[in-house]
Amino acid sequence: MTTLTLQATPQKSIPGDLAMWFFILAELLVFGVLFICYGITRFADPALFNAGQTHLHAGQAAWNTLFLITGSGTAVLAAHAIARLQYRQGSIFLVATFASGVLFVVNKLMEFASYLGQGYTLSTDNFWMFYLFLTFFHFLHVILGMVIIAAVWIKLQQGHYRNGQTAGVETATSYWHMVDLVWIVLFPLVYLIR
Amino acid sequence: MKYQSQAVAKPYFIAAIGLFIGQILFGLIMGLQYLWGDFLFPAIPFNVARMVHTNLLIVWLLFGFMGAAYYMIPEEAERELYSPKLAKLMFWVFLVAGALTVVSYLAVPYATLAKWSGNGLVATMGREFLEQPLYTKVGIVVVALVFLFNISMTLLAGRKTSISLVMILGLWGLAVFFLFSFYNPNNLVKDKYYWWWVVHLWVEGVWELILGAMLAFVLVKITGVDREVIEKWLYVIIAMTLITGIIGTGHHYFWIGTPAYWQWWGSIFSALEPIPFFMMTVFAFNMVNRRRREHPNKAATLWALGTGVMSFLGAGVWGFLHTLAPVNYYTHGSQITAAHGHMAFYGAYVMVVITMISYAMPLLRGREANSNRAQVLEMWSFWLMTIAMVFITLFLTAAGILQVWLQRISATPMSFMDTQDQLRLFYWLREFSGVIFAVGLVLYVISFFIKERKTANA
């Protein structure tokens, strides 16, 4: 006769600071509401949105997706390295994450410049209003994510996070993942879905 | 009181309460003018009474904020105030300037005041809440700069805590955005556009930082909960405040000639503005429930919890009621706005200043808490004022709904003045609630003078 033993799943608390998770949930709520509004407006006038979408540089945006995901990957590696007390490695991975943010920002600025150069503004029509606002609002979040990663990098240089104290790094990484996640929804939503 | 120089807060708090009484008196006068249009005319016309009512509110809250900063910053920075003398001097400058302004509102017609005070040279007058003559505005800037210099120097030399940093960020923001009161473009759209940079970015932006910091300070003191926990909440709350509040300015840009996209961004972001207020409610109750000491000042705890609840109701819920563009299309500038304004100002800013006074005043007078009798009376005043304000808000909301219906939705819309005649019942009820509020305020003032009853009988 076999006995079935129920194994309690190990109680693992959420990574990073609880306060950051409140913040992340609030941010996701804001983006969620924006996405729903986009969806409703698109539903009301699909022709306008389809026409607008054909002018977007989806290829450039695909590169940006790659940058953000790479940044997420290196952020995770940084957190792991610091947990294993490999500070030098952790430092390099944090720099890599920051660099991926720089690539995103530069690429996005070029894209914005191209649209604004063609005369599209928030007042052009509902599609451009949503497109420019949503992506710019997300763009600001990427910059905030970079600031947070930079702050963690500075604290690492100052010798914080010794003896495997990784809560700060996990907090920063969680925020970066949120910014990444929002883009992963935003990218198909405004560039691809017709 | 840990540092001698914290004592400069006391005159600020006393002046705040004094001006608060004046504000309520003018509120009662105006409430009657809604019913009898020529009450006290021509001595105090409605527009003057309204100006005094709102200006006194702003000035006494500023006194409250400054008093709070003078009390909090030395204690947080763990050092004496940079210059208590400067703080005392600025108190008198601000009080005299404020009093002169009110007297000049009452003594001469507004247009004459504008002429005398050089409004022809630099036009800044005539805008709601920013009616002050030029010399008062300049005075406010000078007082604010000296005040900020004083507390910034104190903070720079001492311990920097999250609470004091948020407080000082809020106060600097308050001063910076006030500068837009000097920018008065001829284009009416732009005029209104930047006017909101003072009005909205104060009450739905930087003032919320001041509110959060003051509440957090008092909660640290009365609950004994770890500063780390409280400061974490504070950061989350102010982050949400800024994310929703800054773009939320757009809910004032629906119908003033600004681009149409504001109807979207104003609606969406301002609809989320209740979130930080809700967090503040949860925060206050959570901290009090997790308290690690029983502070003898029960009245201050009550005011702190009251701030959490009433700011959420007044600013959050009553703001949300009419913040979406399709709703605001009908309700704009009606008594619903007045209802929101009353409860939001009382629930958020009046209550947080009283929370601070309630906590700090006994300490400034050399005791940890007031006698039980004084506290009981203070709590009576809390309930009277708060319940009266709930009723004022409900009656104005009812008046507003009826007004919107008769004047804007009905198939045969009535004129503004004909509609006003239909709202008299609600105006009477509002005035009655206002009297109850005034009674609560009188009890509040009396509570400062109640002494411990001698416990002779054993």
Q: What is the residue-mean pLDDT of chain A, rounded to a whole number?
A: 92
Low-confidence stretches of chain B: none
* Greatest contact between two chains: A-B, 17 and 19 residues
- How many domains of chain A? 1
Span of the ends, CA to CA of chain B: 33 Å
Task: Compose a concise summary of this entry.
Chain A is 77% helix and 0% strand. Chain A has 194 residues and is an all-alpha fold.
Describe this structure in words.
The complex is a heterodimer of chains A (194) and B (458). Chain A has one domain: Four Helix Bundle (Hemerythrin (Met), subunit A), CATH 1.20.120. Chain A contains six helices and no strands. Chain A has helices at residues 18-44, 46-53, 58-83, 87-117, 126-157, 167-192. The termini of chain A are far apart. Chain B has two domains: 1-160; 207-449, Cytochrome c oxidase-like, subunit I domain (Cytochrome C Oxidase, Chain A, Up-down Bundle). In chain B, 76% of the residues lie in helices and 0% in strands. The longest helix of chain B has 38 residues, at 372-409. Chain B is globular. Chain B starts with 8 loop residues before the first helix and ends in an 11-residue tail after the last helix. Classes of the chains: A mainly alpha (194), B mainly alpha (458). The interface between A and B is medium-sized, with 17 and 19 residues.
Give a topology summary.
The complex is a heterodimer of chains A (194) and B (458).
Chain A: H1 18-44, H2 46-53, H3 58-83, H4 87-117, H5 126-157, H6 167-192
Chain B: H1 9-35, H2 46-77, H3 84-107, H4 110-116, H5 134-157, H6 162-178, H7 188-223, H8 227-248, H9 261-271, H10 274-289, H11 298-321, H12 325-331, H13 335-364, H14 372-409, H15 416-422, H16 424-447
Helix pairs in contact in B: 1-2, 1-16, 2-3, 2-5, 2-6, 2-13, 3-5, 5-6, 6-7, 7-8, 7-10, 7-11, 7-13, 8-9, 8-10, 10-11, 11-13, 11-14, 13-14, 14-15, 14-16
